[in-house]
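for the writeup, i need someone to sanity check this before i put it in the appendix. the sequnce is what the collaborator sent (i think, or maybe the updated version? ugh). structure was predicted straight from it, no edits. if anything looks off just tell me and ill rerun, i have time this weekend
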Amino acid sequence: MTPNLKTPIPRRAFRHWRPAVFLAGLVLLAGIGMRAMPSSAEEAHSVPLPKLDETASTAATSETVVLAGGCFWGVQGVFQHVQGVTSAVSGYAGGEKDTAHYEIVGTGSTGHAESVQVTFDPHKITLGRILQIYFSVAHDPTELNYQGPDSGTQYRSTIFPTTPAQAEIAKAYIAQLDQAHVFDAAIVTTIEPGKSFYPAEGYHQNFLTLNPNYPYIVYNDLPKIENLKQMYPDLYRADPVLVAASATN
């Protein structure tokens, strides 16, 4: 399905033109199977489990963390396919409420990052496993203020913890991965507590699921879903948990 032309077309499709993305579009128009095309833009990394993690709580049935790692289309798509995740909403975090709008955030001057609010059942998946997927599949945490074809502070790698315990676990995990030299470069992911999350416009929600043939999605984001399926088959869910239209209106 292609984007509904009655809704705004995100400038991402045009602002960051790259030959590989253009080529993907040409192949799509030629009727060749795009989903089989490997992506050189997003390579998954095998990362160890965190040494510090939460234990399954007998009291809490729901927990929320906000994660930023480039375009929220792909990050949302990944976590919508994770077992134990009950909601994954695209939005903005790091700035003020009155600037939490796509066109304004796109200027890179608001302090916001394109983010995804991930709500999960801690009895089914821990924060540590959420972060393992975040660092290994959802994005590359060594890219400073850019991710794939998108550049600017609004695409930075950031964890917005909602509790002090989350901040502690995230900090310890980053140190663990750096000390183990899991990546060829240092992790640049920041931890920014105390920031509010604002849902993005409705046409951004479920974008990957609704537009699987969109060239940007084909080249940059569908490989992430395949990597999730291959690397974490026990955590992969075939049917994504989608955002209801009323949730962001």
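The beta strands are 63-69, 85-93, 113-120, 146-147, 150-151, 157-160, 190-191, 197-199. The chain is about 30% helix and 15% strand.
thx in advance!!
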